[in-house]
Amino acid sequence: MDPKWNEDIPIYRQLRDRVVAMILEDVLGDGDALPSVRNVAAEYRLNPLTVLKGYQELVDEELVEKKRGRGMFVTAGAKQKLLKDERKRFLNKEWPQVAATIVRLKLDTTTLLKTIEKTRSDKAGVKDD
Hints:
6% strand, two-stranded antiparallel ribbon
């Protein structure tokens, strides 16, 4: 997890979002243990209650489950649930603005698809000369 915090967003929410990103990026998979509240609090010099609140949001969303005396673990199917929810949020909230910008700038699908492929190549570490 990145120790830099955005002052405009509560830290517990940023912790929640970082765990979500770790699940979506396959850093954490089904059944994997989350770092302990105590360890995260000590590593980032946070109040353990702040860490617990972020983790509790994940429990409330059924992405993480508490196992008494053992810790917190990613629930089975968490990534699929997140992908479904994130896709829905993107299509309902972000895509209309993106689509309007595409139309306004008169971008064609060929240019957009080439840009997507370049982004994929760059993320995979492939240089496109």
